[in-house]
Protein backbone atom coordinates (compact mmCIF):
# COMPACT_ATOMS: atom_id res chain seq x y z
CA UNK A 1 0.00 0.00 0.00
CA UNK A 2 3.05 2.23 -0.18
CA UNK A 3 1.71 4.59 -2.82
CA UNK A 4 -1.77 5.07 -1.39
CA UNK A 5 -2.18 7.34 1.60
CA UNK A 6 -5.27 8.63 3.30
CA UNK A 7 -5.27 12.31 4.18
CA UNK A 8 -7.29 13.90 6.94
CA UNK A 9 -7.59 17.62 6.33
CA UNK A 10 -9.86 20.11 8.06
CA UNK A 11 -11.97 17.34 9.55
CA UNK A 12 -13.06 15.96 6.20
CA UNK A 13 -13.84 12.31 5.64
CA UNK A 14 -11.39 9.62 4.66
CA UNK A 15 -11.91 6.29 3.00
CA UNK A 16 -9.23 3.73 3.67
CA UNK A 17 -9.53 0.15 4.87
CA UNK A 18 -6.25 -1.58 5.63
CA UNK A 19 -7.89 -5.01 5.54
CA UNK A 20 -9.48 -4.53 2.14
CA UNK A 21 -6.49 -2.73 0.64
CA UNK A 22 -7.31 -0.33 -2.16
CA UNK A 23 -10.86 -1.49 -2.85
CA UNK A 24 -12.58 1.63 -1.40
CA UNK A 25 -10.23 3.88 -3.33
CA UNK A 26 -11.16 2.22 -6.62
CA UNK A 27 -14.69 3.53 -6.25
CA UNK A 28 -13.67 6.96 -7.50
CA UNK A 29 -10.11 6.80 -8.87
CA UNK A 30 -10.17 6.00 -12.61
CA UNK A 31 -8.86 2.51 -13.30
CA UNK A 32 -6.40 3.66 -15.96
CA UNK A 33 -4.63 5.86 -13.40
CA UNK A 34 -4.41 2.98 -10.95
CA UNK A 35 -3.04 0.67 -13.64
CA UNK A 36 -0.35 3.21 -14.47
CA UNK A 37 1.24 2.51 -11.08
CA UNK A 38 3.75 -0.34 -10.99
CA UNK A 39 2.34 -1.45 -7.63
CA UNK A 40 -1.11 -2.22 -9.05
CA UNK A 41 -0.47 -3.54 -12.56
CA UNK A 42 -1.31 -7.06 -11.39
CA UNK A 43 -4.88 -6.14 -10.55
CA UNK A 44 -7.49 -8.08 -12.59
CA UNK A 45 -8.79 -4.87 -14.10
CA UNK A 46 -5.35 -4.04 -15.53
CA UNK A 47 -4.03 -5.51 -18.76
CA UNK A 48 -0.32 -6.17 -18.25
CA UNK A 49 0.33 -6.82 -21.93
CA UNK A 50 -0.45 -3.29 -23.01
CA UNK A 51 0.52 0.21 -22.05
CA UNK A 52 -2.09 2.24 -20.21
CA UNK A 53 -2.75 4.42 -23.26
CA UNK A 54 -3.44 1.32 -25.39
CA UNK A 55 -5.61 -0.48 -22.85
CA UNK A 56 -9.40 -0.77 -23.30
CA UNK A 57 -9.83 0.82 -19.87
CA UNK A 58 -8.05 3.99 -20.96
CA UNK A 59 -9.93 4.14 -24.27
CA UNK A 60 -13.26 3.65 -22.50
CA UNK A 61 -12.44 6.35 -19.94
CA UNK A 62 -11.59 8.84 -22.69
CA UNK A 63 -14.84 8.09 -24.54
CA UNK A 64 -16.88 8.50 -21.35
CA UNK A 65 -15.09 11.76 -20.48
CA UNK A 66 -16.11 13.18 -23.88
CA UNK A 67 -19.54 11.68 -24.58
CA UNK A 68 -21.18 11.94 -21.15
CA UNK A 69 -20.56 15.70 -20.67
CA UNK A 70 -21.91 16.32 -24.19
CA UNK A 71 -25.09 14.40 -23.35
CA UNK A 72 -25.39 16.27 -20.06
CA UNK A 73 -24.88 19.55 -21.91
CA UNK A 74 -27.77 18.73 -24.25
CA UNK A 75 -29.94 17.88 -21.24
CA UNK A 76 -29.07 21.23 -19.64
CA UNK A 77 -29.88 23.25 -22.77
CA UNK A 78 -33.16 21.49 -23.52
CA UNK A 79 -34.21 21.40 -19.87
CA UNK A 80 -33.41 25.05 -19.26
CA UNK A 81 -35.32 26.17 -22.33
CA UNK A 82 -38.38 24.00 -21.77
CA UNK A 83 -38.81 24.47 -18.04
CA UNK A 84 -38.04 28.20 -18.14
CA UNK A 85 -40.69 28.59 -20.82
CA UNK A 86 -43.23 26.79 -18.62
CA UNK A 87 -42.42 29.02 -15.64
CA UNK A 88 -42.64 32.23 -17.69
CA UNK A 89 -45.95 31.27 -19.31
CA UNK A 90 -47.62 30.44 -15.98
CA UNK A 91 -46.30 33.59 -14.26
CA UNK A 92 -47.11 35.93 -17.15
CA UNK A 93 -50.65 34.70 -17.85
CA UNK A 94 -53.23 34.92 -15.07
CA UNK A 95 -55.59 32.64 -16.96
CA UNK A 96 -52.97 29.88 -16.72
CA UNK A 97 -52.99 29.92 -12.91
CA UNK A 98 -55.11 26.84 -12.28
CA UNK A 99 -54.57 24.12 -9.69
CA UNK A 100 -53.07 21.81 -12.29
CA UNK A 101 -50.76 24.47 -13.67
CA UNK A 102 -49.55 25.37 -10.17
CA UNK A 103 -48.44 21.76 -9.80
CA UNK A 104 -46.81 21.86 -13.22
CA UNK A 105 -45.03 25.04 -12.12
CA UNK A 106 -43.71 23.24 -9.04
CA UNK A 107 -42.50 20.36 -11.21
CA UNK A 108 -40.76 22.78 -13.58
CA UNK A 109 -39.02 24.51 -10.67
CA UNK A 110 -37.76 21.18 -9.33
CA UNK A 111 -36.41 20.32 -12.77
CA UNK A 112 -34.74 23.72 -13.10
CA UNK A 113 -33.03 23.37 -9.73
CA UNK A 114 -31.77 19.94 -10.73
CA UNK A 115 -30.53 21.13 -14.13
CA UNK A 116 -28.74 24.20 -12.77
CA UNK A 117 -27.28 22.90 -9.52
CA UNK A 118 -26.82 19.17 -10.08
CA UNK A 119 -26.30 18.20 -13.72
CA UNK A 120 -23.20 20.36 -14.47
CA UNK A 121 -21.40 19.18 -11.35
CA UNK A 122 -22.30 15.55 -11.95
CA UNK A 123 -20.89 15.92 -15.46
CA UNK A 124 -17.66 17.31 -14.00
CA UNK A 125 -17.08 13.97 -12.27
CA UNK A 126 -16.54 12.42 -15.69
CA UNK A 127 -13.99 15.05 -16.71
CA UNK A 128 -12.11 16.00 -13.56
CA UNK A 129 -10.11 13.58 -11.44
CA UNK A 130 -10.71 15.63 -8.29
CA UNK A 131 -13.65 17.56 -6.88
CA UNK A 132 -12.59 21.24 -7.05
CA UNK A 133 -15.72 22.90 -5.65
CA UNK A 134 -15.16 22.43 -1.91
CA UNK A 135 -16.98 20.66 0.89
CA UNK A 136 -19.97 23.01 1.20
CA UNK A 137 -20.83 22.77 -2.48
CA UNK A 138 -20.35 19.01 -2.38
CA UNK A 139 -22.95 18.80 0.38
CA UNK A 140 -25.26 21.23 -1.45
CA UNK A 141 -25.13 19.33 -4.74
CA UNK A 142 -25.87 15.99 -3.08
CA UNK A 143 -28.64 17.55 -1.00
CA UNK A 144 -30.28 19.24 -3.98
CA UNK A 145 -30.04 16.07 -6.06
CA UNK A 146 -32.25 14.25 -3.58
CA UNK A 147 -34.50 17.25 -2.89
CA UNK A 148 -35.30 17.82 -6.56
CA UNK A 149 -35.84 14.11 -7.19
CA UNK A 150 -38.28 13.80 -4.30
CA UNK A 151 -39.97 17.08 -5.24
CA UNK A 152 -40.58 15.79 -8.76
CA UNK A 153 -41.99 12.49 -7.48
CA UNK A 154 -44.33 14.06 -4.93
CA UNK A 155 -45.48 16.74 -7.36
CA UNK A 156 -46.39 14.01 -9.84
CA UNK A 157 -48.25 12.28 -7.02
CA UNK A 158 -50.21 15.47 -6.34
CA UNK A 159 -50.92 15.82 -10.06
CA UNK A 160 -52.29 12.28 -10.14
CA UNK A 161 -54.51 13.01 -7.15
CA UNK A 162 -55.67 16.24 -8.76
CA UNK A 163 -56.64 14.38 -11.95
CA UNK A 164 -58.32 11.66 -9.90
CA UNK A 165 -60.54 14.20 -8.16
CA UNK A 166 -61.38 15.97 -11.41
CA UNK A 167 -62.40 12.75 -13.19
CA UNK A 168 -63.83 10.50 -10.47
CA UNK A 169 -65.29 13.07 -8.08
CA UNK A 170 -66.08 16.14 -10.21
CA UNK A 171 -68.64 17.55 -7.76
CA UNK A 172 -66.42 17.29 -4.68
CA UNK A 173 -63.49 18.56 -6.74
CA UNK A 174 -65.17 21.94 -7.06
CA UNK A 175 -64.55 22.66 -3.37
CA UNK A 176 -61.33 20.68 -2.97
CA UNK A 177 -59.43 21.66 -6.12
CA UNK A 178 -58.93 25.32 -5.25
CA UNK A 179 -55.86 27.42 -5.92
CA UNK A 180 -55.33 27.92 -2.19
CA UNK A 181 -55.37 24.17 -1.50
CA UNK A 182 -52.99 23.60 -4.39
CA UNK A 183 -50.54 26.18 -3.03
CA UNK A 184 -50.81 24.75 0.49
CA UNK A 185 -50.13 21.25 -0.82
CA UNK A 186 -47.12 22.38 -2.83
CA UNK A 187 -45.68 24.40 0.08
CA UNK A 188 -46.19 21.53 2.53
CA UNK A 189 -44.54 18.99 0.23
CA UNK A 190 -41.50 21.22 -0.35
CA UNK A 191 -41.12 21.95 3.38
CA UNK A 192 -41.28 18.25 4.24
CA UNK A 193 -38.78 17.35 1.52
CA UNK A 194 -36.34 20.15 2.40
CA UNK A 195 -36.33 19.20 6.08
CA UNK A 196 -36.28 15.42 5.66
CA UNK A 197 -33.25 15.62 3.35
CA UNK A 198 -31.12 17.57 5.83
CA UNK A 199 -29.36 14.36 7.03
CA UNK A 200 -28.23 13.79 3.44
CA UNK A 201 -26.59 17.22 3.48
CA UNK A 202 -24.80 16.43 6.73
CA UNK A 203 -23.53 12.97 5.79
CA UNK A 204 -21.86 13.97 2.49
CA UNK A 205 -18.50 15.65 2.15
CA UNK A 206 -15.13 15.49 0.47
CA UNK A 207 -12.57 12.73 0.91
CA UNK A 208 -8.89 13.36 0.26
CA UNK A 209 -6.41 10.64 -0.59
CA UNK A 210 -2.85 10.61 -1.87
CA UNK A 211 -1.79 8.31 -4.68
CA UNK A 212 1.57 8.35 -6.46
CA UNK A 213 2.34 11.75 -4.94
CA UNK A 214 -0.94 13.28 -6.17
CA UNK A 215 -3.81 14.28 -3.89
CA UNK A 216 -7.24 13.27 -5.19
CA UNK A 217 -10.44 14.72 -3.78
CA UNK A 218 -13.89 13.28 -4.34
CA UNK A 219 -17.38 14.13 -3.15
CA UNK A 220 -18.98 11.15 -1.47
CA UNK A 221 -21.00 9.72 1.39
CA UNK A 222 -19.00 9.88 4.62
CA UNK A 223 -19.68 6.26 5.49
CA UNK A 224 -17.42 5.99 8.52
CA UNK A 225 -18.84 9.08 10.19
CA UNK A 226 -22.52 8.60 9.31
CA UNK A 227 -22.97 4.92 8.48
CA UNK A 228 -25.44 4.55 11.35
CA UNK A 229 -27.75 7.09 9.65
CA UNK A 230 -28.07 4.86 6.59
CA UNK A 231 -29.30 1.88 8.61
Automatic annotation (TrEMBL):
<dbReference type="InterPro" id="IPR000276">
    <property type="entry name" value="GPCR_Rhodpsn"/>
</dbReference>
<keyword id="KW-1015">Disulfide bond</keyword>
<feature type="transmembrane region" description="Helical">
    <location>
        <begin position="102"/>
        <end position="123"/>
    </location>
</feature>
<keyword id="KW-0807">Transducer</keyword>
<feature type="transmembrane region" description="Helical">
    <location>
        <begin position="182"/>
        <end position="202"/>
    </location>
</feature>
<keyword id="KW-1003">Cell membrane</keyword>
<feature type="transmembrane region" description="Helical">
    <location>
        <begin position="143"/>
        <end position="161"/>
    </location>
</feature>
<protein>
    <recommendedName>
        <fullName>G-protein coupled receptors family 1 profile domain-containing protein</fullName>
    </recommendedName>
</protein>
<dbReference type="Pfam" id="PF00001">
    <property type="entry name" value="7tm_1"/>
</dbReference>
<keyword id="KW-0325">Glycoprotein</keyword>
<keyword id="KW-0297">G-protein coupled receptor</keyword>
<keyword id="KW-1133">Transmembrane helix</keyword>
<keyword id="KW-0675">Receptor</keyword>
<keyword id="KW-0472">Membrane</keyword>
<comment type="similarity">
    <text>Belongs to the G-protein coupled receptor 1 family.</text>
</comment>
<keyword id="KW-0812">Transmembrane</keyword>
<feature type="domain" description="G-protein coupled receptors family 1 profile">
    <location>
        <begin position="82"/>
        <end position="231"/>
    </location>
</feature>
<feature type="transmembrane region" description="Helical">
    <location>
        <begin position="60"/>
        <end position="90"/>
    </location>
</feature>
<dbReference type="InterPro" id="IPR000405">
    <property type="entry name" value="Galanin_rcpt"/>
</dbReference>
<dbReference type="GO" id="GO:0005886">
    <property type="term" value="C:plasma membrane"/>
</dbReference>
<dbReference type="InterPro" id="IPR017452">
    <property type="entry name" value="GPCR_Rhodpsn_7TM"/>
</dbReference>
<dbReference type="GO" id="GO:0004930">
    <property type="term" value="F:G protein-coupled receptor activity"/>
</dbReference>
Amino acid sequence: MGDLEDLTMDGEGTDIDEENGIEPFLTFLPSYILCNSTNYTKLPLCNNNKTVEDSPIFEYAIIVAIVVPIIFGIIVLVGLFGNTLVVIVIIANKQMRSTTNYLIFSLAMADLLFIVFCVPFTASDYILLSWPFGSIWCKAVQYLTYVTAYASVYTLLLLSFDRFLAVVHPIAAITIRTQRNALYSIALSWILILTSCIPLYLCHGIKKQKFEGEVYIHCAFLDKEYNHMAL
